[in-house]
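Quick one:
INPUT:
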């Protein structure tokens, strides 16, 4: 269940769920607001030290949110809506699994559940008009496997490795005009694996290049 948005300067945006991982920028924003609150006389310096310690060690939005609940003008800690303005594409592995390969149109936002059968996503021949693609992963029992072109960049820092672990074997270095694939969520028991194409896949791509 999603929590209500923090009071802030950006009404109408949608909050992350409490269990999702916070970023360094989120922790820094909370720490800055706490320092401002102390300077304004809203909290004393002993309480500031206590809250700062909690903020800088927080892992999730649920840990950060209470630190600002009684302060006006708090940073929003929000997830921006998908750039296309529509609903995210949701894929569920279910009992038998799901595979998305070949040429397919990738939206700006996907929600992927591994389920019992797993999910395999191959982005090597896809079409997309977005510079950044957000994938919310839920590894569940069978996990999620993702193949991305070598020209793309992957940011998997928002994924909780859970029991199955997170393995990102992609080559760093984003080419100009290539998308950024940003992953958030929970790897679950099945784990999340991200890699570039292997030798067989590269051979197939040379024979049948991806769409321009």
């Amino acid at each position: 269940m999603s929590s209500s948005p923090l009071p802030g300067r950006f009404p109408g945006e949608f909050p992350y769920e409490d269990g999702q991982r916070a970023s360094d920028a989120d922790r820094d924003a909370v720490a800055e607001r706490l320092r401002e609150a102390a300077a304004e006389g809203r909290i004393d310096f002993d309480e500031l030290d206590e809250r700062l310690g909690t903020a800088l060690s927080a892992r999730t939005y649920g840990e950060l949110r209470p630190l600002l609940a009684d302060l006006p003008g708090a940073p929003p800690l929000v997830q921006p809506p998908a750039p296309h303005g529509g609903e995210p594409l949701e894929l569920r592995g279910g009992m038998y699994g799901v595979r998305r390969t070949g040429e397919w149109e990738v939206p700006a936002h996907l929600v992927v559940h591994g389920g019992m059968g797993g999910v395999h996503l191959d982005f090597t021949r896809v079409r997309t008009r977005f510079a950044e693609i957000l994938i919310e992963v839920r590894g569940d029992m069978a996990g999620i496997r993702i193949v991305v072109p070598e020209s793309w960049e992957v940011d998997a820092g928002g994924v909780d490795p859970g029991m199955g672990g997170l393995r990102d074997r992609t080559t760093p270095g984003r080419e100009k005009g290539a998308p950024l694939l940003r992953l958030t969520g929970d790897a679950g028991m099945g784990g999340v694996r991200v890699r570039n194409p292997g030798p067989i896949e590269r051979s197939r791509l040379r024979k049948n290049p991806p769409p321009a």
